[in-house]
Amino acid sequence: MLKQSVDWDKNLDYLVFAALYLSLLTITAVGGTRQYSQQRKFAASHLFWRLPQCPFCESSRLRSRSNSAHSNAITLTYSYFSGSVLFDGALPVTGATGKIDVSIFTYYHSLSFFGRSANVLASLPYAVANLQGQVIGAETHLHRSGMLDSVYRFSVNLKGGPAMQLGEMRNWRQKMLIGASLKVIAPSGQYDPAKLINLGNNRWAFKPEIGYSQRWGNWLLDAYAAGWFFTTNGEFFSNNQYFTGTRSQSENPVAAFEGHFSYDFKPRLWVSLDGNFWSGGETTVNGISNPHTVQRNSRMGATAAIPITKHQSLKISYNNGAYINYGGNFQNVSVAWQYSWIGWPK
Predict the structure, then answer these.
(1) How confident is the model at residue 68, as a pLDDT?
(2) Closest-CA residue to 119 (of 42, 46, 21, 178)
(3) Closest Cα partner for 337 from 41, 51, 31?
C-alpha cells in the first residue's frame, strides 16, 4: 500500500481512481508500435504502445507487410520512462512524478493463413515502478515490482501481402497493403484486490485494429485505426480495511490512431517519425462514473533500426508527450535486441 499520512476514509472518493492511473503507468511500455518486413528482420518497435488503464502494451502493431512463412524472432526490450503525472482535476494530487523500468520478452512467428501472410506474437513484460507526489499536501511514495499483464496478438494481411517462401520474397516489392489484427491482454499480471495500486489490471482487454501501408521508393507510410474494449474488474480495491465488500471497476472503449513515416537506407537499416492519439476510457466504480478520467492524449517520437549480423539487429527509440490531458506525461527511451531466423528448429 501507499506510505502516506492522509486520512484515507475521508479521501477515498478521490483516491479510488488513482488505481486506474498509477497502474496504467507501468503498462504503457508493454507492446510495440508496428511490425516490419522480412527485409527489416522483424525489428519490431516497442515505442508507443499505450493501453489506456491497462497500455501501453505498446502496442504490438498490426503486421502490415509480407513475410516468408515460418519466420521467427525473439526480442528483448528495455524501456525507461521518466516524467510527471497529470490528473486533470480527477485527484487532489500535485507534483506527481514517476520512474518506470520495463523489460519485455517477445516471441514472433509468421505463417500462411488461407494464402495470406499472417503472424502470431506473445509478450511477457516485467516492471519496476517508483512513483511519488503530494496527496492533499502529504508526501506519498509508491514502489512496485512484478509481472505485468501478458500480451497476445494475431494479424493478417488482407490486401497486397500474400504468404511467400523465401525465394519469392527476394523478388517481391511492396506497394499498398491493408491488414487487420486482434490484440488480447490477459489478466496475468501481479494483482492484489486489497491494494489500491497494482501492476496487473485483473481484466481482459481486446483491441481490433486495421492498418494501411504504402511505399514510394525508400519512403514508407503506415497508418492504423483501432479500438480498445475492456471487461470489468470484479475485485477493484475490495475486501480490505476501507471496503469490506467487493467493488467493481469498468472502463468505456478507447479509440486509438497511429502513424509512422519512415525511410529505408538499405535492408534492415531505417529511421522513422512516429505519432499517435487516443481518446476515451472514462471509468466507473460501482456504478459511479468519473468524467475526469477521460483521456485525450498524443505522443510523438522517432525510431532507428540497425543491423548487427545476419540474424541480429538493434532498435533504439525515443518518444515524449505531445499533448497529455490525463495520464503519464513521460519521456521514454527504449532499446531492443532481436534475433530472427526462418524455418522450424531441426
Answers:
(1) 62
(2) 42
(3) 41
Residue 134, beta-bridge partner list: 94, 139
Which backbone phi and psi does 77 adopt, to 5 degrees? -120, 140
The β-bridge relationship of strands 205-216 and 219-230 is antiparallel
Q: How confident is the model at residue 64 (pLDDT cuts 50, 70, 90)?
A: very low
Cα distance between residue 76 and residue 29, in whole Å:
13
Cα three-residue angle 44-339-55, rounded to 5 degrees: 35
CA distances from 36 to 45, 258, 264, 338 (A): 9, 15, 11, 12
Q: Assess whether pLDDT exceeds 80 at residue 91.
A: no
Strand pairing partners for 302? 273, 318
Q: Which three cell numbers stand for residue 30?
A: 508493454
Give every CB contact of residue 296 below 8 A, 6+ residues apart in sequence. Answer: 278, 279, 323, 325, 326
Question: What mean pLDDT comes out for the span 201-205?
Answer: 95
Compute the 3-state secondary structure of the chain and give helix, strand, coil in percent, each to the nearest 5.
10, 55, 35
Residues 6 or more apart whose CB falls under 8 angstroms from that of 299 comprise 48, 50, 275, 276, 319, 320, 321, 322
pTM value surpassing 0.70:
yes
| DSSP H helix total and E strand total for the chain | 3, 16
Are 106 and 122 in contact by the 8 Å Cβ rule? The answer is yes
pLDDT tens sequence across 237-293: 899 888 889 999 999 999 999 999 999 999 899 999 999 999 999 989 999 998 888
pLDDT digits (tens, 9 = 90+) for 112-146: 898 889 999 999 999 998 888 777 677 888 899 99
Q: What is the CA radius of gyration of the chain?
A: 20
Q: How far apart are the first and last CA of the chain?
A: 49
Q: Give 109: exposed, middle or buried? Use CB within 10 Å, 0-12, 13-18, 19+.
A: middle
